[in-house]
Amino acid sequence: MVLVEVAVVTVMVCMLFQIVRAVGRNNLLSKAQPAPELTPVIASEPLSKEEEEKWQQGWVKYKEKVYAYNEDIMTFLVMGIDKNSDVKEMKEGTDGGQADALFLAVMNPHDKSIKVIGINRNTMTDIDVYNEEGAYVNTITAQIAVQHGFGNGVEESCEYQKKAVQKLFYNLPIHGYAAVNMSAIPAVNDAVGGVDVTVLEDLTSKDKSLKEGERVHLEGESAYWYVKYRDTSIFASADLRLARQKQYLTAFIDEAKHAVKNNLSVALELYQNISPQMVTDVSLDEVSYLAPIIVDYSFGSDSFRMLEGETIMGEEFEEFWADEEALYELIIDVFYEEVSAD
């Protein structure tokens, strides 16, 4: 009798988990938006008569090939906020914290791949300015990281940052975001058992183990300094840090996949543990849906892409100017698929 009761409970738990996952999947898919607005960006190429006959809204033609946006892709914006405390709502103004790390995580179910796009925090783009009452003032060209500073430091600031990234990527659909205060890095790192890296630049001023060229297993505060620190007295220090972040995240994703494969609850526990230091519109049921899927998705050394461009010294701060054609091609390569001639 006891075995029967255990079996019934087990079945009920499994059913409940599947229901939660189904709800999460439906919620994510309901966030789908129209395709990016690429067509007017670069002068349209003439269409052949055959292409005109079967042309569909949202398609683009580039270098004699026709592409369609992959509507099954799910894209998430991950922000690292320069705050070393739990999240708390701020008064309207500019104290919401800057987004010192910005990444787009892209899940493609067609080839079961994960790609990550690193965005330099100094990327110059349109930034919406708001006053202390929260009213829109105007739009300026500035470093993309400052956008999160406007607003209330929580959901409002995240929505502002999400909008800025979307505009940079020609109104790219984004299915969810997570803004994590930098102080959460040790907990996130240690949840997957730590990460191995070969130190790219000397950081011994912050951690004696972080000698350039050394192979180290990052744990706790070592991970924090490796991902967070930059020497602002060095020109293009944000570029150097982004290279470390790329290296770290590539290794972290691999470790995270192994950890979740061995114990599915790792993702849910991590979500709950860092919640005080995170603002996200990705719900727990959505995480329940995503976690088992990620295990089967591939992520290789060529899966991490970076915006191409140039860092220059502006009148007051460093500025990274993205190469528009390279950005356009990156969007097509990651988010679009070639349309068959048949």
UniProtKB/TrEMBL annotation:
Name the domain of life this protein comes from: Bacteria
Q: Which Pfam families match?
A: LytR_cpsA_psr (PF03816)
Q: Where is the Cell envelope-related transcriptional attenuator domain?
A: 99-257
Q: Which family does it belong to?
A: Belongs to the LytR/CpsA/Psr (LCP) family.
What is the recorded name of this protein? LytR family transcriptional regulator
What is the organism field in this record?
Parablautia muri
